[in-house]
Specification:
This protein is an alpha+beta fold and about 425 residues long. It folds into two domains: about 290 residues, Rossmann fold (3-Layer(aba) Sandwich), CATH 3.40.50; about 90 residues, no CATH class. It contains twelve helices and 18 strands. Strands 3-2-1-4-7-9-8-12-13-11 form a ten-stranded mixed sheet, with helices on both faces. A two-stranded antiparallel sheet has the order 5-6. A two-stranded antiparallel sheet has the order 10-14. α1 packs across α12. It is globular and about 70 Å long.
Length: about 425
């Protein structure tokens, strides 16, 4: 057996869902050990995601409570905090008593991450977080404001942050799913100290950084844009990109923030390895239940749902008449390309514009099974077994592509192991 590494990276997983981050981390390296996790679905008695998480990983260290009710002191010390949090309004206002400081919007889950970090004497050395890519350009009236507030709040907590918008299919994975991933390094870590020195930051984004190594890319055109995040969080909320320039976000799809200074640039993926497609993940026909096959009588309704439209509609409650138009979609889905993005409404037999439909070797049309949806997100087969098929589809619509976490975590583990060996040689505990 291989010698066990002395390096152990303690992980806290927030908004854990069915454990996509954990699956990716544990595939990447044995150094990662999840010491605490939290998953809570509001407004529902059934906690399907949490139940699946416990069924797959065990109950130790798992918390199924509203994160806003969890005290920072109840979260154990950790080295890496991970999570995919909802895209919300991250704006900040002054408290009624200005001397009391600043307040994020109540119920916005980002501020629970911030609260937990802020309340820790020993802050985690690293953060790995995920969100939808529109975070970089929201809200519409102040493009990029939300991301600016988030970056500034992390800078104030002592973090340098690198980010990259990643479409999983651009890097050989079987689903087209664009998300922004950002990796934070505390200024007390070797990586944080290096980046806070302010040298080689552009090279870090394009070549030397952890995300750059995991997901190679080149600059598409032009030079880096650089700017400062000025003012406290309330002032950023009010003033960032307000005015004529607000039509475009200053944040491109890759960048870094150190000491509240931002460097950002647009990139083009440079993947050269194998590529997987929708056809690669399909089950053999004899393993697909008949319930997933589309009856011939329903095919016209599916064609209508998938087809182009330009029709006049009337709002039932107001009587307002308007023209509704949309383009057509591939029907059935191409098997020689990565799939479209899975959404939460993927499950169920009713015709839908956004559900996947494939044609079998025998010419029949069918929907995707839960196992195939899991494979598109690179989960183990039957990871979500134990709940109804529609819920399994919903959970995969909410999940991330595990391969992105695995690849990022693999590079991070290598860097952390190098730092660990260097400290040991220098006699640093």
């Amino acid at each position: 057996m291989p010698k066990k590494s002395a390096l152990q990276v303690r992980v806290v997983e927030l908004f854990a869902g069915v454990g996509g981050f954990r699956v990716g981390l544990e595939r990447a390296s044995k150094v990662y050990r999840v010491v605490w996790s939290n998953q809570w679905e509001p407004s529902t008695r059934r906690q399907d995601a949490s139940n699946i998480y416990v069924a797959r990983f065990g109950p130790e260290g798992h918390n199924n409570a509203d994160i806003s009710t969890v005290h920072a002191a109840d979260v154990p010390d950790h080295d890496l905090l991970v999570g995919g949090f909802p895209c919300q309004d991250y704006s900040v206002a002054r408290s009624l008593n200005g001397a009391a400081g600043l307040q994020g919007r109540k119920g916005v889950l980002w501020w629970d991450i911030h609260r937990i970090l802020q309340g820790r004497r020993n802050k985690p050395g690293h953060l790995l977080l995920e969100n939808v890519d529109r975070l970089l350009k929201s809200p519409a009236r102040q493009r990029g404001r939300d991301f600016a507030v988030m970056l500034a709040s992390l800078a104030d907590l002592g973090y340098v942050v690198e980010w990259r918008v990643i479409n999983a299919a651009d890097h050989g994975m079987p689903q087209r799913r664009r998300r922004v991933f950002f990796l934070g390094h505390h200024r007390d870590t070797p990586t944080g100290r290096r980046l806070m020195a302010g040298k080689g930051l552009e090279d870090w984004v394009l070549r030397d950084g952890i995300l750059a190594e995991a997901f190679p890319a080149r600059a598409s055109e032009g030079a880096f844009r650089t700017f400062a995040l000025q003012g406290d969080l309330a002032e950023l909320t009010q003033a960032f990109n307000a005015g004529p320039s607000a039509a475009r976000s200053p944040f491109d799809d890759a960048g870094i923030m150190a000491g509240r200074r931002v460097w950002t640039i647009r990139t083009v993926p440079q993947h050269t390895g194998p590529r997987r497609t929708l056809g690669d993940i399909l089950l053999p026909g004899d393993r697909v239940p008949r319930a997933f096959f589309i009856p011939k009588r329903d095919i016209p309704r599916w064609k209508f749902a998938k087809g182009a439209k330009n029709v006049v509609r009337t709002n039932r409650s107001t009587g307002f008449t308007y023209r509704y138009a949309e383009g057509g979609m591939a029907f059935p889905d191409a098997l020689d390309k990565p799939s479209r993005t899975i959404i939460t409404a993927e499950g169920g037999a009713s015709p839908s514009r956004f559900k996947h439909v494939v044609r079998t070797a025998k010419g029949e049309l069918r929907r995707l099974t839960p196992v195939e949806l899991e494979r598109l997100n690179m989960f183990p087969d039957d990871h979500t077994a134990g709940v109804p098929d529609t819920r399994r589809a919903f959970l995969m619509g909410n999940a991330l592509v595990v391969g992105i976490i695995e690849r990022t975590a693999s590079v991070l583990a290598t860097r952390l192991a190098h730092e660990h060996r260097t400290r040991k040689k220098q006699g640093i505990p």
